[in-house]
């Protein structure tokens, strides 16, 4: 290969920095590029596509290890669909749903704490109307009285 994209060109086209490009190469997510006579890395356009796929998968919540497994499965599919992507996507969807549930619970508690005027965790925890979920741990220390 006498022509190709140099590291900076690939990184810029894919929206990553050169260190990220090299890191993915070391991790085996990208094939090792050919070298010019001067020793410069020369990548094909497929490297830009691969980087975009990796970054998109990360934005969807896949770890680099999971991305590597999906890429590897895709390389060996020989024209057949890769069921692993469907399985992984369903599992990731379940993780996202669980996180949304947790974040909704956290948001509800924080909004209630703000509305109640909680300004001191220790005082709030001892209050009968403390909205923060840890209050049930100190149930025996509660006293009736004004909120926070």
TrEMBL record:
Entry keywords, A to Z: DNA-binding, Repressor, Transcription, Transcription regulation
Domain of life assignment: Bacteria
InterPro entries reported for this sequence: DNA-bd_dom_put_sf, MerR-type_HTH_dom, MerR_fam
PROSITE patterns: HTH_MERR_1 (PS00552), HTH_MERR_2 (PS50937)
SMART domains per the UniProt record, alphabetical: HTH_MERR (SM00422)
Keyword Transport set for record: no
GO molecular function terms noted in the UniProt entry: DNA binding; DNA-binding transcription factor activity
Annotated HTH merR-type domain residues: 4-73
Alphabetized PANTHER family for the sequence: MERR-FAMILY TRANSCRIPTIONAL REGULATOR, REDOX-CYCLING DRUG-SENSING TRANSCRIPTIONAL ACTIVATOR SOXR
Protein name: MerR family transcriptional regulator
The species this protein was found in: Streptomyces nanshensis
């Amino acid at each position: 290969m006498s022509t190709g994209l140099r590291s900076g060109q690939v990184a810029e086209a894919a929206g990553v920095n050169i260190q990220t490009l090299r890191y993915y190469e070391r991790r085996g997510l990208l094939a090792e590029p050919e070298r010019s006579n001067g020793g410069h890395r020369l990548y094909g356009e497929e490297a830009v596509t691969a980087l975009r796929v990796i970054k998109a998968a990360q934005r969807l919540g896949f770890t680099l290890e999971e991305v590597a497994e999906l890429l590897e499965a895709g390389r060996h599919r020989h024209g057949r669909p890769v069921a692993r992507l469907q399985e992984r996507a369903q599992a990731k969807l379940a993780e996202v749903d669980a996180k949304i549930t947790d974040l909704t619970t956290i948001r509800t508690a924080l909004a209630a704490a703000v509305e109640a005027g909680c300004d001191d965790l220790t005082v709030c925890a001892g209050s009968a109307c403390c909205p923060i979920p840890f209050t049930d741990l100190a149930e025996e220390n509660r006293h009736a009285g004004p909120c926070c």
